[in-house]
Design brief:
4 helices, mainly alpha, single chain, 89 residues
Amino acid sequence: MRYIFLAIGLGVLIGYQGWIRERGIRWNSRLQTVWLLLLIFCMGVSIGRNGEVVRSLPLLGGKAVLFAVMTAIGSIRAQQPSAVQKSRL
């Protein structure tokens, strides 16, 4: 857990100090999107490989599936810069 906080803290420090130029910030945004999609893909593979989870999907109900899908869509959308952010780049 401390490695997670260390990584976040180091990222905040680097971002706050402005040690990364604009080109690096654009690359950072692209990398975030790629790694997020890879993480979501890996989670899907894990769920698909777990037969118990797949079998219990009908029992979970439509609300749980809808919640999971909307969470994934929200996560992906949050990684896409808005028009305001694009104009700054």
